[in-house]
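User: I'm curious whether this sequence folds into something compact or stays loose and floppy. Could you predict its structure so I can see for myself?
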Amino acid sequence: MTTGAALELVQVTKTFGHVTAVDAINLRIAAGTYCCLLGPSGCGKTSTLRMIAGHESVTSGDIIVGPKNVTDLAPAERSTAMMFQSYALFPHLSVIDNVAFALKMRGVAKAKRHAEARKLLELVDMQAHEARLPTQLSGGQQQRVALARALITSPQILLLDEPLSALDPFLRLRMRAELKRLQRELGITFIHVTHGQDEAMALADLVVLMNAGRIEQQGTPRAIFNHPRTEFTAKFIGGHNVIATGGETFAVRNDRLTLKRPDEAVDGPRIAGTVIDVEYQGTYVMVAITADDGTDINAQLSESQFDAANYAAGERVVATWNPALANLLKTRPSTSVASPEPVA
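Assistant: Here's the prediction. I'll summarize afterward.
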């Protein structure tokens, strides 16, 4: 198996008629990185992935894999492979022939291509099912076969289009761990499209959050979570309150918000409101509040913190926080790329 390659996107733009799906983005991904393109539907992440793969043409800009500009090359000439969301297995072919198909198209002899396919089936723990048809496999097994098939050509970059979305929650967690294990063992670059924040946080070395065709913010999962730069980032990543006070807008993590009753002393910024819901979440209690200015905020309290106060729906409270732990937000990054931030 080959090692990973670096990827660079230079002012890459994709338009469909008068609609700009990807707006002059710049992005560098180091070789061997697990990168997640994250964002809501319509943000441009899948169009970006398809342009990298060569399945979508680039309106303007350049795509560079390692030292080579691949912008105008066919998919098979890019040192990339794509695993599709639907898995796209051939229903009439056995597991081993599905995996070996790309080598067959290259004229590789049957014995040799089957030997290579068996190595990959062993890697994804599917060697015992090589004679089965796709319809005889579970969703998780089909995904493993699709992954092995994508790896058969020894790509330097593996592209994954929402590979976990069709799985049930339990299997999704299991396969998430498998993807990370495989990426580490293979050492190749993974670029994984998802709209799931938890998925991106668990898998990625580099998270690239997209919004309206542009890169809103990029960095390590911890850096983005601890240092959101915009209101969009804070809200999409979750776990934060966006609070306007003193003429500025801040992001304050739910677990860094402290609740007081109106008659208690407050040292620091404050926002008054009414408790609208209390949810027990096992390791913590989430208290939902509507502030007097209409802002919805959430305070994540430990069980002991909640038990000591026992807040209830309809009760008046005051939320406060340490200003040093709040992040000042801006409306939008000044460029389409955000420089990496330190891990916090």
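Summary: The chain has nine helices and 18 strands. The chain has two domains: 7-226, 254-328.
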